[in-house]
Amino acid sequence: MRFLVDESCDVALSRALVAAGNDVMDVRKARPGADDEWVVNLAVSEKRILLTEDKDFGWLIYAHGHSAIGVIFLRYPVSERQRIAQDLVELVKQQKENLIGCFVTVTPKRVRIGRMPGTEAAK
Question: In angstroms, rounded to a whole number, what is the distance separating the alpha carbons of residues 115 and 103?
Fold first, then answer.
């Protein structure tokens, strides 16, 4: 799978995805300090699922109708962050291509996968 990891995410997430055999690009290396719209556009042009902990991407996708290949939004409290990389790798392993065209919200107790606007017929 191909991912673009937003600056809001810990570097350990990039490392865990690479170790699991995924193709990962990190915004910190591509363009540090880039605004959210630039990040979404890069994800689309590179055909990558965006990985973020920034809720503003949901606003871009749903309120402004911005397109995306897919988004994984991680919401983990500090007390549970030690398991975030493991949970992410397991999600990708289980769902694979099911993540494409979806906005996925991941918490320690729940994974919610919803089709993004305009992608219902994409599968």
Answer: 6
Residue whose C-alpha is closest to residue 107's, from 96, 123, 93, 91: 91
| Among 7, 106, 101, 113, residue whose Cα is nearest residue 61 | 101
Mark out the alpha helices in the chain (DSSP H runs).
Answer: 11-19, 27-30, 36-45, 56-58, 84-95
Q: 68-86 pLDDT, tens per residue?
A: 899 999 999 999 999 999 9
Across 22-34, b (16+ Cβ under 10 Å) vs e yields bebbbbeeeeeeb
pTM for the whole structure: 0.91
Return d(Cα 122, Cα 111) in angstroms, integer.
21
Contact 1, 23 (CB under 8 A): yes
- In a 13 Å sphere around the CA of 26, the CA atoms on its Cβ side amount to 15
Amino acid letter, 110 = R
Q: Please tell me the distance from the alpha carbon of residue 55 to that of residue 53, in angstroms, as a whole number.
A: 6
Q: What is the pLDDT of residues 3-54, one digit of tens each?
A: 999 999 999 999 999 999 999 999 999 898 899 999 999 999 999 999 999 9
